[in-house]
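Q: Hi! New to this. If I give you a protein sequence and the SMILES for manganese (II) ion, can you show me the bound structure?
A: Yes, paste them in.
Q: Okay, here:
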Amino acid sequence: MKILHSADTHLREAGDERWAALKVVLETAAAQKVDALVFSGDFFDDPAAAERLRPLIREQLSGLPFPVIILPGNHDAEAYPDGAFWGERVQLLRDPEQPFCLGETCFWGLPFREAGEAEVQQLLTQMAQRMDGPGRHFLLFHGELTNLGYGWGEYGRESRKRYMPASLEMFEAGPWQAVLAGHLHRKFAALPIDGERYFIYPGSPVAITRNEIGRRAVNLLEDDAPPRALEIETAYYQTYRLRLDPLRKPEPEKEIRARVEALGPGGMLLVEASGFFNGAAIQLTEEQFFRKLKSLENERVELSRIECRDIRRIADDPLFRKIIREIQNSRTPRERSRQILGRILQAMME
Ligand SMILES: [Mn+2]
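A: Thanks. Here is the predicted structure of the protein with manganese (II) ion bound:
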């Protein structure tokens, strides 16, 4: 049995980067010849998007060689009204008592609802009791794992509410083979429940906010092997700290270009620029340098922070020149001398 597991696509409209990510996930599932594709919540960003996209989703998910199993999450808990048709291969897990089974393997879903930790515990106990038959069971869950200690930002959300909180220990008692979870956007995370069983967050398959750094992945589960993060080519952010060296001519264009070239096709660079430059040497004021950095922004580059300072006031100070000579003569490694110099500059500027 081979399962591809994703979550948190947060679909809003056809044709955007999230829509493109859905297509990549479908192609990946087909290429991997999986037996089932699972989406553990927040397939849609909101019920209105689900209503709008239904005919297109039906088209996208038709003719697939595998079933698509969808669990409602906190964003799309109300997105699947009775009687709505999503396509003949789509299996909605809206009822915790009704699993979808492929032969001996059953997928059970705990659809999102407003519940505190005690209630989640109770729901899990009830679900565990239902899985008394033979065969393998998978639990689909959309909520936050309290053990991770992540803040609300990692879940890609705007409000600070808690969503179906549960601790890893709460999943120990059930007979499930694995917990296929959703809600954590940040990145792929496979946490051992005990022995060979895992609780897995695949991470969002496309960056939903700027908190989702790094290439996106889906979870590939095959028989008894541990879960595997399979990287996919979708839109994502990468951060880059551009640190200016006060002793060298700043070449932000060149450095940023090199970083962009190293990104995958969907990569967008978030640049945090800091450090010191000698404005007199490059004939730019602080404002002009700031504008020059801003002008490097394009559809793949964003200057998320600019903390660069002009040191022309002290660049010709005899004491400063002396310090530089000493550092240069001391054969201190470049990175270390840049740090030392940074501290000295900081003190002198103040
Ligand atoms: Mn989400």
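A: Residues 8, 10, 42, 73, 75, 156, 183, 185 surround manganese (II) ion (CB under 6 Å). Let me know if you'd like me to explain how to read the tokens.
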